[in-house]
């Protein structure tokens, strides 16, 4: 009996280490993808369209809240250090403090929100509803942080800033959320993430 308990404990410990290692590797890969996705940028007024929201949502779907925050946090630290990982090949603290910096801060909060809400089954009876609520909340958090900083830095009024920094992106980001959910589920089914 004691031997069985010891063997079970060792398997559980090994499984936990493998899980932590998988999450660290996944977080590092997502941080790299987030940096790469910033290079695909289409200027649309004050805020460019990039694939970054897709990667942020994917991080929230694949990682724990701590892992999602770490993935985006590493990306933000690299950008703050001056590496050209932000949209348009920019880097530095000036970008984080500039008109679009709120969206970058929102990425960390949004990914963490998605991961946290996804883990909260009390939200909904089904995984599909929980995922939809989590993704919508993550996007709202990103928009809110970006919108508020856009207002503060540019001096635009609340509604002009909303029209410039939120409204044009709602349909695009909803599409990114649907695709992120499909990709996350495929990766989990394939055993690559999860």
**H/E series:** HHHHHHHH
**What's the level 1 CATH class?**
Mainly Alpha
Overall pLDDT score:
89
Count the beta strands.
0
**How would you name the oligomeric state of the polypeptide chains in this document?**
single chain
Total DSSP helices: 8
Name of the CATH architecture: Orthogonal Bundle
How much of the sequence is in beta strands?
A: under 5%
Question: Which regions are unreliable across 5 or more consecutive residues at pLDDT < 50?
Answer: none
**Principal-axis shape:** globular
Radius of gyration, in Å, reads 18 Å
Q: Quote the CATH topology.
A: Arp2/3 complex 21 kDa subunit ARPC3
Level of helix content? over 70%
Reported for the largest beta sheet, the result is: none
Distance N terminus to C terminus? 32 Å
Total count of domains: 1
Fold and architecture overview:
By secondary structure, this protein is mainly α. The protein has one domain (24-189): Arp2/3 complex 21 kDa subunit ARPC3 (Orthogonal Bundle). It is 73% helix and 0% strand. It has eight helices and no strands. The chain has helices spanning 2-37, 52-62, 65-80, 93-97, 101-118, 127-154, 158-165, 170-189. Helix 2 packs antiparallel against helix 3, helix 2 (52-62) crosses helix 6 (127-154) and helix 5 runs antiparallel to helix 6 (127-154). The two termini are 32 Å apart.
């Amino acid at each position: 009996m004691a031997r069985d308990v010891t063997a079970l404990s060792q398997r559980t410990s090994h499984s936990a280490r493998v899980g932590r290692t998988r999450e660290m590797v996944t977080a590092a890969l997502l941080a790299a993808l987030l940096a790469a996705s910033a290079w695909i940028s289409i200027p649309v007024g004050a805020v460019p369209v990039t694939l970054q929201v897709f990667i942020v949502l994917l991080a929230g779907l694949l990682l724990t809240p701590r892992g999602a925050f770490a993935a985006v946090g590493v990306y933000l630290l690299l950008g703050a250090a001056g590496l050209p990982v932000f949209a348009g090949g920019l880097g530095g603290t000036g970008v984080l403090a500039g008109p679009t910096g709120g969206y970058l801060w929102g990425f960390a909060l949004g990914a963490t929100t998605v991961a946290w809400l996804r883990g909260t089954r009390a939200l909904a009876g089904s995984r599909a509803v929980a995922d939809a609520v989590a993704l919508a909340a993550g996007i709202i958090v990103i928009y809110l942080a970006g919108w508020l900083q856009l207002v503060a830095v540019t001096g635009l009024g609340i509604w002009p800033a909303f029209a410039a920094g939120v409204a044009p992106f709602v349909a695009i980001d909803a599409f990114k959320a649907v695709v992120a959910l499909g990709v996350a589920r495929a990766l989990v089914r394939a055993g690559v993430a999860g």
